[in-house]
Write a structure and sequence with these properties.
By secondary structure, the chain is mostly helical. Helices cover 81% and strands 0% of the residues. It is elongated, with a radius of gyration of 25 Å.
Amino acid sequence: MREAAFVKQNKEKWIAFEKAITENSEISPDHLADYYIHLTNDLSYAQTYYQDSKTLLYLNSLASQAHQKIYINKKESKNRIVEFWKKEFPLFFFQHQKTLGYTFILFLVACCIGILSALNDASFLRLILGDAYVNETLNNIEKGDPTGIYKSGSMIGSFLGITINNIRVAFLAYAFGVITSIGTGYILFTNGVMLGAFMTFFYNQGLLFEASKSVWLHGTIEISVIVIAGCAGLVMGNSILFPKTFSRRISFMKGAKDGLKIVVSTIPFFIIAGFIEGFITRYSNMPVWLAMVIIFGSLALIIFYYIIYPIILNKTYGEQIHRTKTA
């Protein structure tokens, strides 16, 4: 591309960015970072094809100003952690809700495959869940306590072990995105098949409702945030497959950062799920109404924070952000 065409194609974007950093515009850190990534991409291109040109000097100067704006003059709030979960993350996550929808569909399809396979092949349950688990649960069923496996061990030990394991699974689902979306898809698929087979196991024993009443106490949040962690992996994986206007390296760096932000957001929810499983699920004889309150309350919390709340914040602040980007 000739230099004149390159300048004409990107001039408006550079001017908008220059206004944003020189006029102290109210612009979110994420959008400022997006501008900066575009700029460094253009700068790399100019360094390759337009050496010793005025365009290269201009982009170098602009990149230097942007670096100071982002990394030196940025003021951190004293309540940075609170602001992250209260405002920054929900606003950021709004752009990835469609990916979350695809992730949920993939997980749901895997669950259906697990259900159909377990219904039509008795050996499938042992293949997926393992002989030890199946045998122990069958023994508990004979004793009249189908979910007795959740009562083993101390409360604190169960809470810590379960929480750490769930966070490990979440980061694994995210990390597998480094081998593109196929890696994360594999983690989601295997967990979905396992869940489908697991629920079918209790269905075959005529204990679906009784088991669900206990399992979904913690499982509502646990399964939901595993899906959300899968969304984080797909965000990173898709950045490799579909770099759009970025170079593949820059796209991957941005995707990895966005995905990490999503998976970090799930940690408090895994702690809540671990607490419920360690301290509450073991009380399988609790009233049905109380179990339903916990289950549907957990579902409402996830839906509100990851779907409804980002939409509300986007309506509140989206127009302001759009004006800043097009100023």
